[in-house]
Amino acid sequence: MKTHTLNEVQDELIGKVGSIERDLFEYELQLDLIGTAIKQIRKERKLTQEELGKMIGVQKAQISRLENNVTNVTLDTLLRVFTALKAKIKLQIELPSLK
């Protein structure tokens, strides 16, 4: 029986690192993680989607879409949500080296 590394399986199922398929998967994964974090923090703060929406001036439906990764969101909205949730925000940008 042949064994495979995690990287080999990911390359096969998702696409190789740097491919359009892999980049799209990782982009959607990050959006999903952000939505999950918003939902978790909101619940820890004992806020409903409607209450959080009112705090930042959007409808409950937009908070729901944010949490469920149904829509793209602006950076402004994300910052307002995390600020309302009193979350510390760190933005990290890594650029590949140009060789």
The shape is: elongated
Mean pLDDT: 90
Order of helices and strands: HHHHH
Poorly predicted spans: none
Number-wise, the strands total 0
Estimate the helix proportion, in percent. 55-70%
CATH top level is Mainly Alpha
Q: How would you characterize the largest beta sheet? A: none
Report how far the terminal alpha carbons are from each other: 40 Å
How many separate structural domains? Answer: 1
Q: Tell me the β content.
A: under 5%
Q: Treating each run of at least 4 consecutive H or I residues as one helix, how many helices?
A: 5
CATH superfamily label: lambda repressor-like DNA-binding domains
Quaternary form: single chain
Structural class: mainly alpha
Rg from alpha-carbon coordinates: 17 Å
Q: Write down the CATH topology.
A: 434 Repressor (Amino-terminal Domain)
CATH architecture: Orthogonal Bundle
What attributes does this structure have?
single chain; mainly alpha; 434 Repressor (Amino-terminal Domain); elongated; 99 residues
Tell me the layout of helices and strands.
Blueprint: H1 6-13, H2 20-44, H3 49-56, H4 60-67, H5 75-84
Helix pairs in contact: 3-4, 3-5
3D architecture notes:
The longest helix has 25 residues, at 20-44. This protein has 99 residues and is an all-alpha fold. The chain is built from five helices and no strands. The chain has one domain (6-84): lambda repressor-like DNA-binding domains (434 Repressor (Amino-terminal Domain)), CATH 1.10.260. It has helices at residues 6-13, 20-44, 49-56, 60-67, 75-84.
